Structure formats: C-alpha cells, structure tokens
Amino acid sequence: MLNFNGKLIPVSTFSISNNNRAFKYGDAIFETILVLQNKVVFWEDHYFRLMASMRMLRMEIPLEFTLEYLQEEILKTVNATNSLNTRVRLSIYRKDGGYYAPTTNQVDFLIEVSENLYQTKEAYTIDLYKDFYNYSGLLSTVKTTNRMLNTMASIYMNENELDNCILMNEQKSIVEATNANVFIIKDCVIKTPKLEDGCIKGIARKKVIEILKKHPDYIIEETSISPFEMQKADEVFLTNTIMGVQPVTSYKKKKYTTIIGKKIAASYNLLKVTSN
C-alpha cells in the first residue's frame, strides 16, 4: 500500500501524469525514515528538516502538515504492512504545471514503506568517486530527488565491487558517501564535513555529533576534509538513519581499525531505541 495525500491505495493503482514535476524537473524532496515497533525514530528531527527544506525551496506548507498529522500518516501506512522494522520514504513534490517556473507552489505527498533489511557489515570497503563533483553550498544539503551524482557513483561502486563511494566537491574536499555522511578519526579528533561543503544535513549525522559533544574523550570538528586525511585516519565510519553507524574497514590500500566506530555505533543504537 501507498499513502497518497492521506489516502491508502494499492501500489498497482498509483500513477503520475506526464506533467509531474518530480519526474520532469526533480522538483521534490524526500525523507528516509526508520520505524521500529510502531515508533518513528527521531521523527522531530526529520519533521523540522522537512519543513526547513520546503521553506528553502519555496514550497507551500499545508496547514494540516503538523508534526502529529504526518506522523499519524506514516504510522497508518506502516500498519497497513504489518512490519515491525521498516524504512519509510516520505516524498513531497510541487503539483503539476509549468515548465521550470511552476504554476503553483502547492504540494502533493507520497509515503512508501518497505522492510528494512540492512545489517551492519564487518568488512566494508570504500573509494573516491572522481568523475563528477557534488557542488558546495546550502542547496546541496537538501534531500531533493535530483540524485544523478549518487546514481553514477553507485554504478561505479557496483562495477568496482565496493560497498560505497566517497563524493567530493569542486574544491576536492570530502563531502559524503553515496548514501551517508562521513566521519574520520585521528587520535582523539573526529572530523565530519561541514554543511557549507555540500553534505546532506543528515539526521544520524546530527545525533552522532550530539553524542560526541557529550563524550569527554573526543573532540568533534565540522570542517573541510581532504582525501589525504582519509589516508592518514585511524578510523572512518558512515552514518544514515537506515544503516545507523557503519564502520569502514578499508579505503584504497589503507586498512582501518573499528574500535571507536563500534563504540559510537552502540551509543547511537541505544539512543535510537530510547529517544522519544
């Protein structure tokens, strides 16, 4: 079942018009959300990021789009699948009409549910993707449906039997992985790319930063990171709301330890199941 504008419908009956703006122009945003035991994990963070993204893209926010309303619609859709561990995609796109300039800023929403099958991997290999860049700036921090760079990097990843690829911006600074934020560890300093460099404003990224700021043994820095620093790092780990914290074991010929990454993963997993 899908949820289209608050109505549950079978997947087989859903269709879009040839004037759909998400299809034609990528004029849409989305949230990927984890639901465990009928609980929308970190829902407030997702909701406020969603509202900020809609405002940035000049989308009209319907009056009924309250935190409670959208949470109820998510759970209504999840309950129709009878699954206890699900990933939800909430997409919002401008209504049909116009060319680049839309005829309206009103929106439709679509909620899709699938089973969450991700399990943390013991061996996890990454490399740089160098063919195209993710350009720096705040627009790149928004989860729009224009994911061509991520698609091309994922094809490269599959062709080279990798688990993920690292994207760079036009200044050749590390930005993020194809589907996750990046953290590197050297001694007691943990770095992650700053938002101004173009990384997604990830929910798991935010939560890990909050965990690290409370930990007396680590210093967390949001800063520009060069690929050279990846070679010198002791550990690297990736984060997103579905995978949680995924330690990386190798980058090119570099081998990483995973001791700190696994400790952070344990703290994150505890927060995930205990937070409201």
Overview of the molecule:
The protein has 276 residues and is α+β, with helices and mostly antiparallel strands. It folds into 2 domains: 2-115, D-amino Acid Aminotransferase, Chain A, domain 1, CATH 3.30.470.10; 125-274, D-amino Acid Aminotransferase, subunit A, domain 2 (D-amino Acid Aminotransferase, Chain A, domain 2, Alpha-Beta Barrel). The chain is built from 7 helices and 16 strands. A hairpin with a 3-residue loop joins β13 (235-240) and β14. α5 (203-213) packs across α7 (259-274). It is globular and about 50 Å long.
Helix and strand topology:
Blueprint: E1 2-4, E2 7-9, H1 21-25, E3 28-36, E4 39-40, H2 43-56, H3 67-79, E5 85-94, E6 107-115, E7 125-128, H4 148-159, E8 164-168, E9 174-177, E10 181-186, E11 189-193, H5 203-213, E12 219-223, H6 227-232, E13 235-240, E14 244-248, E15 250-251, E16 254-255, H7 259-274
Parallel strand pairs: 7-8, 7-15, 11-12
Antiparallel strand pairs: 1-2, 1-6, 3-4, 3-5, 5-6, 8-9, 10-11, 10-13, 13-14, 15-16
Helix pairs in contact: 5-7
Features:
D-amino Acid Aminotransferase, Chain A, domain 1; 5-stranded mixed sheet; 2 domains; 276 residues; 6-stranded antiparallel sheet; globular; D-amino Acid Aminotransferase, Chain A, domain 2; alpha+beta
